[in-house]
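Hi R.,

Here's the input for the zinc ion complex you asked about:
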Amino acid sequence: MLIAHIFLGLFCAQNLSEYVQVYKGNMPLVLSAPHDGYEKPKSMVDRKEGVKVRDSGARTIALQLADQIELRCGRRPYVVTTTLHRIKCDMNREIGEAAQGDKDAEAVWQVYHDALAAASEDAQQYGDGQILFLDIHGHGHPNDWIEVGHAAPLDGSEWISGETSVGAYLTAQGFKAVPSPAIPDPGDEKYFNGGYITRHYRSDAVRTIQFELSGPMRKKDKRHDTARRLADALSEFIPTHFVMPKFELEINEVTKQNEYESFYKIFNRAVDVFGLTVFADKKAAEAKLIHQAWVMYQYLDNDQNGFVDNYKVVEFLQNEKAYMLMTSKRFNPERHEKDGWHIAQDCFADETHPDGLPFNEDADEFDATLEEVWHLISNGYVAVYPTAFGLEPDSSQLTAAMDVARGGQFERIPRHYPEGAWYSYDDRTCEYQCMAMEYFYWGLTTLLDAQSHPLRAEQIKDEWRLTTPEQLRTGDKLLSELLEDEQFKLPTRLPQPISEPEVLQ
Ligand SMILES: [Zn+2]
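And here is the predicted structure with zinc ion in place:
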């Protein structure tokens, strides 16, 4: 019951609990920011001993970090912060030194720590029971680095400064971090190895780490960037060492009152996938809506570790409010532009075949979901990597490869494609950029082995003739090497139809 009370903020008289902010999460991560409070109630006496200065910006960064993590995995960390100034109470000390005898300060300390204990306990239900707990601070030392406090000797072990240590992932995001593979120990420099909170909450189930951020990282105009890069580092670190809960699809109603308001007349259901949306009208079968969303999930988190594989691409699509739509009615995406829904891609119910090719060898119709959902996502690749995936002639590696695949640079469809061309789409409504989008799709899905079934190869032979991964790798090196370049984190496994009903909420 304690947990419920803490998350509802119900216990604690005198409103002292208002100095502590508790945000319930739904993932195996707890964030704490104890030293960035600003409130100095006269009713509490000032502390006489110890450090009394704020870790300015640490609380803002913790809150922004929670938001940034949610954008990358669709789940929120637990967050506990205080707005009570450290001169009144130091949450990162045992209670005697923390409150120095003031009864109210002691009460707030207790609220903060009850909340941390409850959050640590509650978070263990998400994943396999092991959680990460980050206590976020700021140091005033001269080095512009993150002091990573493990509350353990800096012995060079994997967890402390190996290639999968948190210091390694911070370094990859452009931070200096100690310890890390680059800087395994601080030498004679000042360094915090973890305070009371880091030591107190450590257990077999709870891996605590203290982050001490430098002054420059906490400057007002740098906080957002710091939070983003911390989130990027944690998106790699967390799934390497912890188990994220399975992705859950939730079918939401489209109403006049919610965020889907402008779609109300045509659509009745929406599924959110990492901030992108799949809409369906009331005629579309639920299984088809779920299939589209599930394919989208697998394209975006292809290794299914809980975090999107390429957040730069997803961030672009989130900002443009990219969406899929399944309707047989006439639909005008321009109507929705004013509400920020900028990128639309349709995929009709009658071309959505969860039991079609390539999933079912005995089927004769191909599932267009694999194509249409990829088209939506590729808008992100085009925008984020224009020299790799730009659609204009002579703009990118993609179009350079396509000009070879078509046997020449054709801005208009040629009367006959040259002999030896293996990509020869002849739909005149599809101009050069559209051709490049289709080529991207053919290349990717061929590498994922979606096109090699003999019946399928026969169906598409007028348009695309390298239908197995091996044919593509030997026959179209420019494209296959582009798509297998690991920097782009493109999918390497073909999405599959949903098979586990438990992923549905
Ligand atoms: Zn601190």
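One thing worth noting: The longest helix spans residues 103-123.

Cheers,
M.
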